[in-house]
């Protein structure tokens, strides 16, 4: 447990210290101002516009920061030599991968909270916002971030940061477009049909965590919906971390 906590602390402080945190704060203020400006120039439905744009901006910025930070972390430790100080000690690669993921997940939560509070906290001075629905939408948005973090950890365990970033970004786009892919491939013949089915079952269905389109009724969704989403996220994350552990064992350092 002590070794796991040490990896978590190292990962969290590496991600959050220095220029990244300053950049997050600057971006958060910029998003908050942009959100209010767009709502102000709209003719109607200001509350809905503030919420829709705010949720979209917070999600996209948090995803970009998470992908880049995760994909670069393993290589940066390799270049600084810290990974050589960790792995030879009596610490398993499973502990190393698990600690990295928890540390990255904690960092992504802090980043997500900073962005969310900046955007919606400022907007609350002018608008009566549906806080419960926004909260449920943001919670599932963080589950989306955790799945992306696990995927980025997997890709970073066997590839360079640029490739890991591209693979994670592509998976994120595909994961939010599975229904369109299935519909498109279903019209292209038998081979494309089965290709679409393979993609559908192999890629993460990230739309399960997208409540932005239904945030107005997010608090009225059945409990089974949230339980299934949580189970799906935990299952996919577990598989990704196991594969990352196997990939790292086979990699030469």
Question: Which short descriptors sum up this protein?
Answer:
mainly alpha; 10 helices; 79% helix; 0% strand; globular
Describe the fold and architecture.
This protein has helices at residues 2-16, 19-41, 46-80, 82-86, 93-123, 131-156, 161-175, 178-185, 190-202, 223-250. By secondary structure, the chain is an all-alpha fold. The two termini are 25 Å apart.
In short:
It is built from ten helices and no strands. By secondary structure, it is mostly helical.
The averaged pLDDT comes out at 78
Run of helices and strands: HHHHHHHHHH
Can you tell me the number of structural domains? 1
Cα separation of the termini: 25 Å
Helix/strand structural class: mainly alpha
Strand content: under 5%
Describe the secondary structure blueprint for this structure:
Layout: H1 2-16, H2 19-41, H3 46-80, H4 82-86, H5 93-123, H6 131-156, H7 161-175, H8 178-185, H9 190-202, H10 223-250
Helix pairs in contact: 1-5, 2-3, 2-5, 3-5, 3-6, 3-7, 5-6, 5-10, 6-7, 6-10, 8-9
